[in-house]
Specification:
2 copies of one chain form a homodimer. By secondary structure, chain A is an alpha/beta fold. Chain A has 3 domains: 5-56, Orthogonal Bundle (434 Repressor (Amino-terminal Domain)); 62-163 and 297-325, 3-Layer(aba) Sandwich (Rossmann fold); 165-295, Rossmann fold. Chain A has 13 helices and 12 strands. In chain A, helix 7 links the parallel strand 3 (120-123) and strand 4 (143-146). In chain A, helix 10 (226-237) packs across helix 11 (251-263). Chain A is elongated. The model of chain A has no long low-confidence stretch (mean pLDDT 96). At the A-B interface, helix 4, helix 5, strand 2, helix 6 and helix 10 of A face helix 4, helix 5, strand 2, helix 6 and helix 10 of B. The structure holds a DNA duplex.
Chain lengths: 338, 338
Amino acid sequence: MGSNIKDVAKLANVSISTVSRVINNAPNINPETKKRVQDAIEKLNFKPNRLAQSLGSGSFRSIGIVSARSSNQGFVPLILQSISEVADEGNYEIILNNSVGEKKEIEKCLSMIDSKVIQGLLLLSSRINDNLIEKLYELDFPFVVLGKVVNEFLSDKVFSVDTDNLSDCEEAINYLVSLGHKRIGCIHAPLNYVVSKERLEGYIEAHKKAGIPVDYSLVENGGYSINEAYEATLKILKTENPPTAIFATDDIKAIGAYKAILELGLRIPENISLIGHNNYDISQITVPPLTTIDVPILELGRVATRKLIDIIEGKRPPIRTILDTRFIIRESCRKLNA
Amino acid sequence: MGSNIKDVAKLANVSISTVSRVINNAPNINPETKKRVQDAIEKLNFKPNRLAQSLGSGSFRSIGIVSARSSNQGFVPLILQSISEVADEGNYEIILNNSVGEKKEIEKCLSMIDSKVIQGLLLLSSRINDNLIEKLYELDFPFVVLGKVVNEFLSDKVFSVDTDNLSDCEEAINYLVSLGHKRIGCIHAPLNYVVSKERLEGYIEAHKKAGIPVDYSLVENGGYSINEAYEATLKILKTENPPTAIFATDDIKAIGAYKAILELGLRIPENISLIGHNNYDISQITVPPLTTIDVPILELGRVATRKLIDIIEGKRPPIRTILDTRFIIRESCRKLNA
DNA sequence: TTTGTTAATGGAAGCGTTTTCATTTTTCAA
DNA sequence: TTGAAAAATGAAAACGCTTCCATTAACAAA
């Protein structure tokens, strides 16, 4: 209990340099010496003090996760799981930054960086005017963004992993259009997040391409909670000329929409077609099951973490990686009668 | 950029000891000296190297979270938020241990402890045969468990924060009984987690007290996912003598139950009454809204984290804290006709 | 043999703090 | 006015590693 490298060195009858070499798997060690040191380590149950190692080497091997950014609560536990997986493999610790509010978030990040606690940062999403991203870029600190960086100067300089939100949302709307829908509502998330804006843009773009004018009275901010989405849906459905279909940019919002639709005595898909996004578990279980877009959340976390570790270790991974999504047709949409 | 305590000392014309004292708010510093040092710190934008501080002081000020324990995915982001809040206040970092599987989980914990990375550990739930708890207790390492410790030797020695699952589940069953229900099903989580077992026990206990025999063909393991709960409910409903009410030990499972019930052409609450547990957002939005039990998740996280920090800092907080839950009657239950 | 290389190891100087102990300075009661 | 206690500060030894540099040993080529 409480042995240090010195004790090991003494027991193995070598210098602490040699012990350090064994610990770090350095080349050019006599196999016999190595064995002797390893035996001593075992015997003393020696575990290197990570703080001392870090101070000596200059790296604590840890990555920070800026998680409060993800408005989407279903997302977080899933992605943390895959991030942990990869971080563990690379022998990195994960330090959480859950600060709420941009100011506190930035403060906490800078503090962790300045005090040498973290070697890299993973942002779980990107914002439209992302001050943190700008700061990190200026500092030349290793970081990866999950999502698109919209700042025109930075967009091709910042490492990111993402899906193609624009086109997958277009696909969803195209599908509705192909079923004959022309009045399609949209419940989106707050637009200061890039992902939210992109999804809305996909909705708009598809309309343009189909030659259908967007009726903005059918487009509502559904906030972050089921309940806000419910309210937003209600609003849309109570417009003078209500939609025949609704696209929710997130399954959780779709859940709120279900509620509103049912409450007004309408049925899905008979009266209203509904599409979600993300393919959370719950989308399979709704009645009827929800047509949605599958996002490879775990893979997103894995790829991003690998990329971040590469950057930290001086490699040059691709700047931007786009992962595929998958449109999943279930039973929440129907063909509109002519 | 990259200044250290030495630079500050030089600029302020004092020794590094004095700078250290200022940083750490030690007593007995001349206010003028202090001012001078603070100015120098500001001027050089000096931020103490946390790793060096830790090595010097022997504490990195960080707590580990064993999170993969929580089978309950809705729980994690919420509680992480409140944990972060309190940890930030106390100037502690949060390091995530998301290892899957008991063996890896224990390994990772011990490794973090041995290598001095963490000063305390928060277990997001307890298991029936909890080897990690035993190990931590033997090591006399600071830790807090969210949930009950059932090992008879340890139960009154391990710090914990919890709610009274047994009695809140009893209350739920009592309510159903008061509505005239005698055949009540139960969808529970895997019983290797204490909380799952307790909730089932509450169900059983209430039956006993009411003089109603428990029919174990109505008790099913609903696993971790909505889908497993759905399957379990289906099984219960298809028994020869199906129940008139179902208690799901978690709202997520209740969602699975909704699906199964509706699918069989039954209605809630007309044909089947349903009660959940935890009062997640979604329970308000189901049709009809779900009667459930509110658990103060955020408060649970806050109290546990405060307790852990107290332990780390040598104080003696109460061994066990029980927080109140609240039975929330909504519209998913009805009185049974005689 | 001698020389040049490479493998294997040790010594010691960091890394950037905290903390103990000693020393100097100040304060204040007698 | 003195002396003891308290306040303020500094010097230097930790803390437990990594890593650079030097040294020795081994071995092959000349």
